Amino acid sequence: MSTLNTTTSTTRPTLGAGDVGKSYFETDSNKILVWDGTGWNEWNTDLIVTPGFNNNFSGSFDGTDDWIGIGNVSNLNSATNFTISVWFKRGSARQDMLLGGTGTTGIGMYPWSDTKLYVHAGSVGTLNASLPGENQWINAVVTRDASNTKLYLNGSLEDTATSLTIPSTAGDSFRIGNYVAYPNDFLGNIDEVAIWDSTTLDANNISAIYNVGNSTNLSSNIGFYDQSSNLTHWYRFGDHANDTGSGGVANGNTITNIENAANPGTNDGSTINGTPSFSTTVLP
């Protein structure tokens, strides 16, 4: 019986094309790693399979006037079924707007000074849940179908409410780092904003998106995630080919465009307010 070499997430060895098949056990994450010649393939011990996936940048927002408009997400207007996922990290509890469209009775998400995350989905304060803490990456997902609207944090269901009518303008003027109805811009980092605007993802898919705190390739079905064909919007903040910044995509450069990686050329995040910038502060 053979044993695997061990490593940690911060001491993974540097390997090359000639090292295909080398395997390690990562002691701090309990993953099994296999090198394919260009990157790591990762298998979590909870049986969620996660391929190696690069995530080099996030968006940094200054909390004063930074936000990005992605236009009108028309399928959210009067929507029956949808799912929205976002990763965010802020340094301390304050009144922040995370994302949303037109109107207080539309669709919006915001972490607040009381250390809770609130979701509007047809009514003010429809859902809320206590955040696991500050100065850490948190994945928030809201799902809606004809019966229930649900809020998940880090893959776990935290709140459920009876679904209310979504107004016909809920997807208009959709913003990241701001919610049209309120003036409090987000302070911190936002990454991997994704929308499935005609599909309600189930708990298995949401667990796979959280992926034990790791980046997930939402454009490919793998493990418990099987909704790539229904992904309509995916903003990667510097990791998509057509994302751009002042002087290029680099740490600290002002964001000039984030493209919808799920449907390139559409719903580009090119309406920039303030000077949101690319950041190398990222989730794994």
Q: What does this protein structure show overall?
A:
By secondary structure, this protein is mostly beta strands. It has two domains: 5-45, no CATH class; 58-279, Sandwich (Jelly Rolls), CATH 2.60.120.200. It is 3% helix and 35% strand. The protein has one helix and 22 strands. The protein has one helix spanning 203-210, and strands spanning 5-7, 23-26, 31-35, 40-44, 49-50, 58-62, 67-69, 82-89, 99-100, 107-111, 116-121, 127-130, 138-144, 148-153, 156-162, 175-176, 187-196, 233-235, 244-245, 255-257, 271-273, 277-279. The strands form four sheets. Strands 6, 8, 13, 14, 15, 17, 18 and 22 form an eight-stranded antiparallel β-sheet that branches. A seven-stranded antiparallel β-sheet has the order 12-11-10-9-16-7-21, with no helix packed on it. It has a five-stranded mixed β-sheet with strand order 1-2-3-4-5, with no helix packed on it. A hairpin with a 5-residue loop joins strand 11 (116-121) and strand 12 (127-130). The two termini are 32 Å apart. The model has no long low-confidence stretch (mean pLDDT 90).
Total of helices: 1
The helix/strand class is: mainly beta
Q: Approximately what portion of the residues adopt beta-strand conformation?
A: 25-35%
Number of strands: 22
> Any guess at the CATH architecture of the largest domain?
Sandwich
Gyration radius, in Å = 19 Å
State the low-pLDDT regions, or none: none
Largest sheet: 8 strands, antiparallel
Output the helix-strand order.
EEEEEEEEEEEEEEEEEHEEEEE
From the N-terminal CA to the C-terminal CA, the straight-line distance is: 32 Å
- CATH C-level class of the largest domain is Mainly Beta
